[in-house]
TrEMBL record:
Residues in Inner membrane component domain copies: 132-182
One Gene Ontology cellular component annotation held by this UniProt entry: endomembrane system
Pfam family, one: Na_Ca_ex
InterPro entries: CaH_exchang, NaCa_Exmemb, NCX_ion-bd_dom_sf, YccF
Protein keywords: Antiport, Calcium, Calcium transport, Ion transport, Membrane, Phosphoprotein, Transmembrane, Transmembrane helix, Transport
Membrane-protein topology: Multi-pass membrane protein
Transmembrane segments: 135-158, 232-260, 317-337, 343-365, 377-398, 418-440, 452-472, 519-539, 571-590, 602-622, 643-662, 668-689, 696-716
Boundaries of every Sodium/calcium exchanger membrane region domain copy: 348-468, 571-713
The protein, known as: VNX1 protein
Taxonomic source organism: Callaeas wilsoni (North Island kokako)
PANTHER family: VACUOLAR CALCIUM ION TRANSPORTER, VNX1 PROTEIN
Amino acid sequence: DVPKVPDSRGDGDGPRRGSLCDRHCAAINNVQGDLGDLGCHLHRPRLPAATSTPPCCQQHSEEVCESCVVKTTLTAENAVEANKLSNNYKFGFKKWKSHVTARPWEDRSEIVKELYSDLNVIRGSGGSTLTCGNVLYLLLFGWWLSLLYVLVAAVMFVTVMGAPYGRLCWDLAGYFLWPFGKVIQKVEVPKSHQACEAGAGESSALLGGPTPRRWRPRCWAGTGYWQRASTALWLCLGYPLLALAHGLVCVAAWLLIVLIPVAKLSARAASCVLLLPPERLLVRRLRMTEVPLEGEVILCCYRAANPYYYKYAVDGINVFAVNLLPLVLVTLVLGYVDAPNHLTGSAVKFTLALLSIMPLSYYIGMAIASISAQSNFAVGAVVNATFGSITELTFYITALIKGSREGNRCYAEVVKSALTGTLVGCVLFVPGLCMVIGGIRHQEQRFNSRSAGVSSALLFLSVGGVFAPTLFSKVYGKLVCGECHNVTQNPLGHYLCHNCHFDLMDNNGTLYYSHVQPLVYTVSILLPAAYLIGLFFTLKTHTHIYDIHISDCHMPGHHHSAVVHWSRWRALLILLLSTLCMSACADLATEHISPILTNSTISQYFIGVTVLAMVPELPEIVNGIQFALQNNLSLSIEIGNCIAVQVCMLQIPILVLFTIFYPTNFTLVFSDLHVYASMFSVVLMNYIFMDGKCDYFQGTVLVMVYFILLAVYFFAPSPSGC
């Protein structure tokens, strides 16, 4: 909420004094800061009537006051979230969208509450149950699950002793065919039956260990129930098959995400309904105006699908990251157990390894954000600098090692393409996509142009430094061509040459070792130094550029202590394990990329700038889109800029340093296509970000230019030596 500033026209100092500044400050404050699901909002302190005009505006009556424009005050739920929000605005820190602490249940929206609600709540008016999601359940699961219950019912009727379970399965067959608008209740057992169950209790869980309260209603049978012969028959003939079927339904529905209610339904049926005595269960249809008054509701479902389940989280982990985690295990098992490629080919293993990098990048990012939010500034800076680029560096280093062992220059060229693709994608595609998606909801978005200007200046410096050895080699290198033909048949005529490049190893590599290599080392020292100066500039001497203030007051109703999802030690353990798995997946990706590079008709340039460059950045892109949707374009732009700056000022110098201790084919000399694409992208980005505001049209321009460059890479011939 943005409190209104009292109108200054009531006093006698002037009717229009500071009016433009007030309006501009209100507009800026209305678009900066973490909003929405972050649980924080911007506010400006309410000024007294006598001092309603800010001091800066008294000096600049009709000019936009700079201090008001960049001032951003955030209100967080607790100290940990406040630290995380502050870190989001710090240059060089990983920007994170999700909460690192558990949000109170009463502060959640009704949509989110419904996602976590139990399937035992009866609504007053459920509406029509004929929906697309319910029909999808019928086609995918309902018909064969109902048929299976009918078959089990027939088997139990044949045994005579299991006839009560046969009647129960018959009722459940109709229920699971179309469970919507129906209810399963646990009814009270008559006293004559209770006498037969002396010593019965409901305190022990069947699955062992404590069960979450939300998943454990009071549906456990007494000890007398387990001593029946019919119960033993049911547990041998009927229950295993039905439990297996519900387990398959639960896994399939969970993986589809939107059908998570079906997964909850199946889990409750297997763990509770099928383990109760049949005489204590009642299946009935719930009419619109009828609410059962007797008995405990065990299952009551109205919708099989909910599109908002993409927000669902398990212990702070998004459901997509949870579902992709088994993919990492499958990738590692297939990659190292099936080394001779008997089960799957190299293309499948490469794809799996590349997809496994996405959830691991998410876990690394959340671990970094959790550690930074719970630590002081020094620890957070060290963790961000150490592990912020670990995903990309792991892949690049493993690729260079493999190329050095095989004596194949293609791997070094692919790494250069991936570096350029990351730079171009984070400068054009990431902010452009965020502008387009955010511009659909917001007509015009504003951002902190001064903070973007710092990143832009560092980008100009870094791009110039990275490509300085390339430009030096173009000027002083010797042009060597692989094949030349005399067009005019005249010795002094024109020649048509192919596969030309600048040779730096002429005269035993004098030019390279005496001039280019020292220049590369010099640049690799100056770029990290410039990065550190940028950190010192934005985080120490010129913090007013960002001017992020965390208010001491909390949001209404927030009087609880912070409950973090991951403690520091747990986050550190997950960070180390994710980094280890990332190294293994990167090793598998580089191990099985060789057939793709040699047999594919697509240019190696295109593979590097698209797949290898942008797939590891997908979690960052998702974060940027979420920030843009909440009208916080500043963080969306900073995500792309920080990644691009780290590529040039940290990742490339680290690769150069690595080649000193482990000689590879990697040299800091790029092709002309990489140079032109990178420089053009940085110039265009600075032109778009010049005025501090944007819309979906400008975002469309950036995205279109990015796709044009992809088309150029797609039709470009493969680099020489590949």
